[in-house]
Amino acid sequence: AAGVIQSPRHLIKEKRETATLKCYPIPRHDTVYWYQQGPGQDPQFLISFYEKMQSDKGSIPDRFSAQQFSDYHSELNMSSLELGDSALYFCASSGSIGDRPLDTQYFGPGTRLTVL
Amino acid sequence: GNSVTQMEGPVTLSEEAFLTINCTYTATGYPSLFWYVQYPGEGLQLLLKATKADDKGSNKGFEATYRKETTSFHLEKGSVQVSDSAVYFCALSYNQGGKLIFGQGTELSVKP
Question: What per-residue confidence (pLDDT) applies to A91?
């Protein structure tokens, strides 16, 4: 079965650079979530989109922005990178029945961002 | 606010031992509860879930029962294998389509 696809899998950037992470949800899933997992930490919710509209916002820095496109893929844009942004970034997707979202989220393999 | 608390790890067991990982939650209303597993270097995989009180989620020999009276969702397995070595996360979702709130994770190491 198709899973959530994230690219790139690994990314190395310098401080103050920008990065773009991409997420392709499971086909027919209309909700995308972004999470950040620091070393040895639990995943922290950043932001989510339902039907291309932002549906919830968590502890996402103002330097980060995200959007969901018409084909439901999502991109997380990160600017003015800091050392503390080094983490695993997960995307997850979920589907819906009619206009009722389902509560099970399926995670991608993650993008490991290293800021030097 | 909503939160999840897991027993601290790491937990080290011998193969075929019984496993319990405790998870308690704080939430208003009736959240859905989940266990996710993260193998080394990999993403999070859904292990099991329960959506209402007294529901039992099960998968691959793992079980957890949604206990509203004790606000708990403890993970159990009768006989662990070396391949079960991973980090286990308990999580809740308060609204359908809502964000997941994770516990701090419990690392399990199973020795042959």
Answer: 97
